[in-house]
Each structure stands twice: as C-alpha cells, then as structure tokens.
C-alpha cells in the first residue's frame, strides 16, 4: 500500500475493493413483491406510530444472523405466525447483520460471513448474503427490521428494510443521528447502556432535522449527503447497567419526558438486553408486563422487541482440531451472540397478545 503522505495511515494495513451499492442493487434488484412488502410494512408502522392503527408493533427475531439458511426457515415460520396474529400484532422480523460489540467479538454477517474461518472478513460476500436474505424475507410478505451500524450500509440495504434501530452504543453518536435523518423507514433509538434515556430523546430531535455530511453515493463514491430528516423516530427502552425500565412507572415517566421534550410519546420495550439481564428465560416476564400495561390502557407502549431463534439459548463457536474456531460444528438455529427464546416460546408469547 502506498501512503498518500508519510504521516498518513500508519495503523492501516490494507484496503480491499468493495462492490458499490449500485453494483449490488443491479445484481440483486428489488422485486415487485419485495417492494410491496417493504412499502406496506413502513406504512403500517407509521400508522402505529401516529396512533392510527391500534395494533402492537412486534420486532421479533434472532439476535444476529449467522446462518442464512436457518434464518430463511425462521422467516417462513414467522411469516405464518405473523399472518395468524395480524389482527392484533404487526410482526416485523428482526434481521440483524451488524453487531456493535462492547469491546471485541464477531461483528456480524456483513463483516465476517465465514465466521473466523480462513476466509475472514469477506464483506463483499457478507453484504450480498444480507441483501439476498432480506429479499427472500420480503418476498414472503414479512417486513424486516435491522440495526444500521456502519453509516455506509444503508446504501446497500435500505430499500429492503421497513424498520430500523440505532443501538444503545451509538444513539449518542452524531454520525448515526445524521444517518437516521436520511433513512427511508421509521427508526427506533435505544436508551444508552447506562440506562440514560436523554440520549434517545436527543437523537429523535437530531434525526428529525435535515443534515449534510460525508457519505457515499450509489456508485460508492465519496459524497456530501443531504437529508430531509426522519419524522418517525421513536425511543426503545432496553434497560441499563443498574436497572430495567419497562415497569408501569418507567413507561409513564418516559412518556412524560417525551411529551415535555415536545416529542410524541411512543415507546418500544426491548424484552431482551438489560431488561432481561441477557437471560432469554426472562424475556417472557417483560413481554407479559407490556401486554398487561396495554390491557390497562397504556397507549404510549406501541412496540415491543423479542430476541428469538429456531432454538432457545446461545452457543459459543466451537474449536476445531487445528485449535481455530470451527463454525461447521455449530448447532443449527441457535444464536451465537445473545441468548434467544426458541420458536415454540415465540409462538406462545405472540398468540397470547390480545386484540
Ligand atoms: O445484542 C447483542 C449484544 O448485546 C451487543 O452486540 C453487545 O454484545 P457484547 O457485550 O457481547 O459485545
Ligand atoms: C445490540 C443490541 O442491543 P443494544 O443496542 O440495546 O445493546 C441489539 O438489539 O442487537
């Protein structure tokens, strides 16, 4: 690698070419059926956020996608379940390809689709697999939601996504608020890992405004991006280091803070993460509380999130005979990041939601 200047890139070890957003979209153009699902999903979510649709938005799916075949099977089962409960829930599949790590770890399918094998960090394959899977899910008629972490990723996937999240570790980041201001779908902002909700409120205000920032265009060229602002930001309560934040008094306090800040009091509760102490077996308690609060008339609660997979729990990546992590020994349908509830429990919880 030739450095442009002797004082530049001293800690960069290389650059590899990445397909452009336009190149990927041309290879995998959105189908009419997929576009219809995305548009309907976004419209339905916007209606829920405006209070024009009484259903509860339920973002349900794996903590992370590492096996697209298992994710496709999950999507098929979830699509049937979504149809069954569609009079009371709008089910959106959680399809997370980018993982924000507390320190280091596997950063998701886009970053490293071959899971520590010799073929590491093949992001051209990762982004293609992500787009293929989103297309497959949309063609089932099931809307998808994802966390956008790398600010360039939306250019590759945004057209196939109906709902987006900005995570607890990035809600305070100006880069992510700017990105959210240009996203084509409603965006949920998590409270901080400390439990601080103010960062989500600030993010909603920031993302509502137009921004001008450095990004990439369709051709993958560096560009100045100009955005309109996103009117459909909302807060996600995921608990914090020392406390959960889904109890009736937490919801009332959060809704009050949104109103005081001049924002619409719409809240989603994340049943996982700090609200469950990362124990998948504790997600049902949070889910039940959300349903009970809605039944008691708490209409600020418009959304809920579950981390769910084909099978319950999670697993580490086993080590092969050469001492390296060996993804071929993974159990199918089990999370390799946070523990998830299994599909049977998912069915039971979703079916328990009242109209
Ligand atoms: O949802 C996933 C994790 O909670 C998040 O990526 C942080 O994970 P980590 O603390 O294991 O890095
Ligand atoms: C990383 C996630 O959550 P949080 O940002 O709340 O930690 C997630 O939902 O995958």
UniProtKB/TrEMBL annotation:
Source superkingdom: Bacteria
GO cellular component: cytoplasm
UniProt pathway: Metabolic intermediate biosynthesis; chorismate biosynthesis; chorismate from D-erythrose 4-phosphate and phosphoenolpyruvate: step 1/7
A Pfam family annotated for this UniProt entry: DAHP_synth_1
GO molecular function: 3-deoxy-7-phosphoheptulonate synthase activity; identical protein binding
Catalysed reaction equations from the record: D-erythrose 4-phosphate + phosphoenolpyruvate + H2O = 7-phospho-2-dehydro-3-deoxy-D-arabino-heptonate + phosphate
Keyword presence, Mitochondrion: no
Enzyme class: transferase
Transferase keyword on record: yes
Name of protein: Phospho-2-dehydro-3-deoxyheptonate aldolase
Organism in which the protein naturally occurs: Phycisphaera mikurensis (strain NBRC 102666 / KCTC 22515 / FYK2301M01)
Gene designation per UniProt: aroF
């Amino acid at each position: 690698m030739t450095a442009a200047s002797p004082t530049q890139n001293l800690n960069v070890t290389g650059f590899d070419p990445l397909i452009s957003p336009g190149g990927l979209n041309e290879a995998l153009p959105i189908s009419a059926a997929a576009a219809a699902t995305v548009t309907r999903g976004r419209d339905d979510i916007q209606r829920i956020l405006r209070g024009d649709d009484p259903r509860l938005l339920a973002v349900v799916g794996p903590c992370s996608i590492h096996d697209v075949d298992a994710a496709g099977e999950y999507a098929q089962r979830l699509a049937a379940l979504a149809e069954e409960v569609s009079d009371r829930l709008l089910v959106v599949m959680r399809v997370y390809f980018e993982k924000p790590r507390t320190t280091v770890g596997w950063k998701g399918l886009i970053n490293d689709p071959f899971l520590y094998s010799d073929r590491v960090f093949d992001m051209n394959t990762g982004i293609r697999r992500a787009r293929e899977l989103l297309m497959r899910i949309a063609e089932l008629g099931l809307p998808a939601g994802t966390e956008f972490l790398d600010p360039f990723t939306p250019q590759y996937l945004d057209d196939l996504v109906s709902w987006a999240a900005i995570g607890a570790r990035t809600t305070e980041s100006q880069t992510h608020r700017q990105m959210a201001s240009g996203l084509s779908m409603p965006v949920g902002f998590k409270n901080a890992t400390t439990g601080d909700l103010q960062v989500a409120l600030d993010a909603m205000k920031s993302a509502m405004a137009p921004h001008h920032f450095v990004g990439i265009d369709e051709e993958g060229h560096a560009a100045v991006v100009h955005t309109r602002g996103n009117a459909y930001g909302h807060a996600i309560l995921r608990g914090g280091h020392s406390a959960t934040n889904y109890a009736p008094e937490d919801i009332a306090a959060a809704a009050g803070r949104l109103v005081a800040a001049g924002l619409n009091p719409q809240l989603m509760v994340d049943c996982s993460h700090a609200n469950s102490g990362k124990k998948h077996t504790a997600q049902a308690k949070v889910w039940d509380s959300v349903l009970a609060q809605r039944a008691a008339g708490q209409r600020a609660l418009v959304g809920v999130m579950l981390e769910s997979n084909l099978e319950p729990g999670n697993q580490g990546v086993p080590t092969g005979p050469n001492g390296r992590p060996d993804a071929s020994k993974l159990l199918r349908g089990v999370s390799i990041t946070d523990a998830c509830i299994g599909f049977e429990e998912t069915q039971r919880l979703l079916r328990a939601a009242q109209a």
